């Protein structure tokens, strides 16, 4: 009897998860047996547990044919995923968090586009329309700020780098994994940025997500590690020490040279300094004939129009009249944030001296300038990335459009096309 091809290998990285491991894996296996039309295996990746996690993982691998367990002495989610994905024999390599924060009903639309060859990498997103998310405001704010930084500094186009629900085709993983260096939580982001640079098509799935209230992830330490990872990756791409092969279509680097971001920052800073000087001079001129709030609004509007026009031409290299009006409108909306910050700063002052007033306004404008650069790069003058799939707002699992071939694609292929039942598991 011929052996069935293993289509999906679902890795569950764990470290000191003795409480959640067994019920989560049993629930996942039950879903695969009853509702998943492809052959699948669950790989428990114990990376450095010091409690009873490994004993539980080993027992599950012996009890359940769909489960195997792999033990690694060193901790690190990225290290575990790279090691297991590099040797897996499955067509599609996936992973999910052990707490199963993501609804399992999203697993099929996550992997189906990869098995069909329509897409190369798929991610769950909590930040798109159609997603239903339950989590605290602190985590929500950190997540959105992190993804905004990725868009501004790395030129990323994916909407959610940190959702613990991703999949990649085996052949694409083999090419990209040797380029990754991070062994921790930044591994996801690193892989996604490299995939975009390689021109791969990334499929995004809106997910239902319920945050694990017992999560032991150190948010501050993880955030700092992510920032260090961004600096390392960005520096490597800018210097050319990280060379990403073109794997499908045109890569992100074709349209955005590695040296573009530093040059943009310098140009934006020069324009910003000039705009700030013009703003202060205009404010002082108008302040003698009108109130502080009125002088602030008028000065901002005048300098905003000039700032947008200068950045359009000098920083982002856009000339001609096409879309100029649209860029100005978007630029004014971005400036609205600066207006809110400076007006708010003025509102909290109580009869200050003119020097204090101007100093506070300059500080507020510097903060607003950083935010405006992010919006300029990602929204006002940003260009859509070819071959990037985004979820549509009117449905959770829509018929997708292949932008390269112009063909319609159904992420729910009939189960008859797949071999039912789970694949035999390899035990540790």
Can you describe this structure?
Strands 3-2-1-4-7-5-8 form a seven-stranded mixed beta sheet, with helices on both faces. Strands 6-9 form a two-stranded parallel ribbon. The chain folds into two domains: 8-250 and 386-417, Alpha-Beta Complex (Spore Coat Polysaccharide Biosynthesis Protein SpsA, Chain A), CATH 3.90.550.10; 260-380, no CATH class. β2 (40-47), α2 and β3 form a beta-alpha-beta unit. The chain starts with 7 loop residues before the first strand and ends in a 19-residue tail after the last strand. It has 13 helices and eleven strands. The chain has helices spanning 21-35, 53-63, 77-87, 107-115, 137-154, 170-176, 187-197, 219-239, 252-255, 260-287, 292-315, 324-348, 354-380; strands at residues 8-14, 40-47, 67-72, 92-96, 121-125, 132-134, 165-169, 202-206, 208-210, 400-402, 407-409. α5 (137-154) runs parallel beside α8 (219-239) and α12 packs antiparallel against α13 (354-380). With 428 residues, the chain is of the alpha/beta class.
Write a brief caption for the model:
This protein is of the alpha/beta class and 428 residues long.
Poorly predicted ranges:
250-259, 384-388, 390-428
Give the biggest sheet.
Answer: 7 strands, mixed
CATH fold topology of the largest domain:
Spore Coat Polysaccharide Biosynthesis Protein SpsA, Chain A
Helix content: 40-55%
Number of domains: 2
Structure keywords:
428 residues; alpha/beta; Spore Coat Polysaccharide Biosynthesis Protein SpsA, Chain A; 2 domains; two-stranded parallel sheet; 11 strands; 49% helix; 12% strand; disordered C terminus
